[in-house]
Please model this.
Amino acid sequence: MRLFAYVVALLSLALIVPEVCAAQDDTSAPVQAAPPQQEGLIGLPKETQAMLERLRKKVERKAEMTEFLSRAAGLFREGEALYQKGDRRAAEAKFDLARQTLLSVEEEVFYEPGVHTYFLQLSREIAALTETSTLSPASGNQIATASNMHVQRFIKYFQGQGREGVRVAFNRLGQYEPMMRKIFQEEGVPEDLIFVGLVESAYNPYAQSVAGAKGIWQFVRETGRRYGLKTGEFDERHDPEKSTRAAARYLRDLYEMFGDWHLALAAYNAGEQRILRIIKKTGIKDFWQMSQRRLLPEETINYVPAVLAAMAVGKQRFELKPAMRMAKSAQAPPQSRARRSDTQQYRER
Model:
């Protein structure tokens, strides 16, 4: 029976897709007519109907993605031709239209791997052609912590009411820190960004949000897959090493998009499409101005200062005198055996 159900499903899908396409071309069809896909589902088990409906939506989304990608590619080629003819202004207008074509899609479509990857590729090709290549993410290996009242408020919290949570988080960080710094160096992003993990999860590799984000870096399923993390039975978002590599690459891509670490961090929290749309609509390219004008979600308005405060507190931690660090180590009770790292525990599961 299961095999028969799949055969019926495949045959029905073959009938449904042409009917959907024909219905889109037939503008004379009565408004009250029942959708063809509903007629094709009559008599099928509910489970099969649900599966076919999911397949139909998938086909429609793929068609939508193809249309937008084709349109953006066409606009880029037009801009490229104009640029080679010396009409820089017209070329830049075409390039802008190409980018906006991809930004105009629904959020769910924009973050599909094909669309998002092409958006990055398109941005790089435009930058290379116009000789406006993006800055090096690791330039200076420092991120301005913007010592304003918002950042200071979070520093005070981390050093006061939230002090115990910070202590626990930094204890966890101890086993990952060399690995994280090495990966961030290899991926060309500032090492200060390891302190994003304090705000995201307090360095708990098994942290999970109500929205389904998981791991130290709180990747949602789609973003994790986009950066090479498997999310099946063994969810690699929980793997400290693999997820750190993915986070470094994602942060690098965000910096490449915005050329500013504050905006890159805002995009890490709110999504790059939202930040790019705000820039397009208002012309504002400064996080603090966006924040002051309440153009961002409240969570993001607080997120960036919190991360900057975490960086300040984290770096302050390394400025302790060696003697004080040694004294703290001496106070720690001896352990009877070494604790396996969370990476080892994950891989042994």
